[in-house]
Amino acid sequence: GITGKYGTRYGASLRKIVKKYEIQMRARYACAFCGKQAVKRVAGGIWQCTAKTCKKTMAGGCWTLTTGAAATARTTINRLKKLKGEAAAEDK
What we know:
- By secondary structure, the chain is an alpha+beta fold.
- Helices cover 42% and strands 17% of the residues.
- The protein is built from 2 helices and 4 strands, in the order αββββα.
- Strands 1-2-3-4 form a 4-stranded antiparallel β-sheet, with no helix packed on it.
- The longest helix is centred in the C-terminal third of the chain and has 24 residues.
- It is elongated.
């Protein structure tokens, strides 16, 4: 597998954890700009779309494009924007 490079070193539990992160890191993700499944990791927290027409560079999590905390923050911000918009509509 992907952690075969470590041989019998470091113990099975640690190799399983590393395997999970390395699979996430090497996976391709969907680009938010062009929609293609072409975003790859360049460095820790830096992701780039490899589609010929896009080539956008974006910031994300170290191992995955979006982190759980980022998703929570995004949904909270969108919910508050929606509430603010509804309140403004009621005032008019």
